[in-house]
Amino acid sequence: MSVEITASREAEVGGLPVRRALPRHDRRTVGPWCFIDHFGPVGEELADSMQVGPHPHIGLQTVTWLLEGEVLHTDSIGSEQLIRPGQLNLMTAGWGVAHAEAAQPGGTGSHGIQLWVAQPASTRNGAPAFEHHAALPTLELDAAVATVLVGDLGGTRSPARHDTPIVGADLVLRPGTSVVPLDPAWEHALLVSEGFVDLDGETVKPGQLAYLGVGRAELPIQASDNARVLLVGGEPFGEAITMWWNFVGRSREEMVAARADWEGHGERFADVRTTLSRIPAPATPWPEPTIL
Known about the structure:
The chain is mainly beta. It has one helix spanning 252-263, and strands spanning 4-7, 9-13, 16-22, 33-42, 51-57, 60-68, 71-75, 80-83, 88-92, 97-103, 110-118, 129-133, 138-141, 144-153, 156-157, 166-173, 176-181, 187-194, 197-199, 202-204, 208-213, 218-223, 227-234, 242-244, 247-249.
């Protein structure tokens, strides 16, 4: 089976440069995963530069995984949670939520991955929620240790909420070959966060997304030196989604309505307790309806 390797595009979030691996014009989702930003690693001079003021979300879950640094999460349902490396923050937007994220001063660097999961029709209009997991289950795989962030890998299950069949796992690799068990009915992709790995004879490095497709029952990963990768996957998402700015929905009309609620300080996006400035919504890329 072939591996499809694509380059991430450069972006900036809250003053921190990021590599955006997903979405792409030719690939919007991998399972329910619809957004992957890899930020850092950066040194002490930029360690606290990520300052993202209050902004809204609908129809998705945010998954925050840190490799270095500390970030304070606050949101419109009253959550306030500091996240450190090896811990997981998962926020469910549902009908609507707003949050802010601020890297904390005093760190020696910043490095991590922020992901979004598209919510299915059964939950996407539900109530917002937040959960923090200070410890996550691990799985030994040959020359690797996998931490299961969300879903199930090889029978090891994360306690984090998931609304569709899914996997998200961080693998710390030692030199050698590690065989990762996969569900052949799911599609998967791999993001390298540190070092280099070989998949099916192809070398993958940071800044690239390796799409693995469906039909694989296992994945041999070769590393000649220490490396670290993030595996994401899940049952192919059976709903066509519309994504714009910080929203995941099913139509442009939903995007326009959510934008109007945010700009109009509507009740579904309550205030967030933070000193950071509220982020205004950009103009939509399509004409908004005229209200007479």
